[in-house]
Design a protein that fits this description.
By secondary structure, the chain is mostly helical. Helices cover 56% and strands 6% of the residues. Strand 2 and strand 3 form a beta hairpin. The radius of gyration is 18 Å and the shape is globular. One of its GO terms (molecular function) is DNA binding. It holds the Pfam family MerR_1.
């Protein structure tokens, strides 16, 4: 069995996930409502979480502790799930490129790291 398959298997009930992540059940359901995680459901409609779900919840928790709001977290996850720019078949519009670069610069600032493009682009965003 491959490691990726093991990590995607729904094994953990919400009570265990609450202990592992130190999140409340309400918080976990809230992140599910915002489509940041998608736990599997049993025949009795109980949520069962994979190790990837737990990793995602811990990542969300870290982002919140860094001061990133839910809209920012959603944008980060959207960007992570999109193919790389170089792999895109269609060209990005000017608006998409500006949005991508703005988010990249904001993330770099929040993590107290300099973006590679930050020096070149800082004159465009005040």
């Amino acid at each position: 069995m491959s490691q990726q398959l093991r990590r995607t298997m729904p094994l953990l009930p919400i009570s265990i996930v609450m202990q592992l992540t130190e999140l409340t059940a309400r918080q976990i359901r809230y992140y599910e409502d915002h489509d940041l995680i998608n736990p599997a459901r049993t025949d009795g409609n109980r949520r069962m979480f994979s190790l990837i779900d737990v990793d995602t919840l811990l990542e969300i928790k870290d982002f919140l502790e860094q001061g990133i709001n839910m809209a920012g977290i959603k944008k980060i996850f959207e960007m992570k799930n999109q193919p790389l720019i170089a792999e895109k078949k269609a060209q990005m519009t000017d608006k998409e490129l500006r949005s991508f670069l703005r988010v990249e610069m904001q993330q770099a600032g929040r993590m107290q790291k300099a973006s590679l493009r930050q020096g070149d682009l800082s004159r465009f965003y005040h």
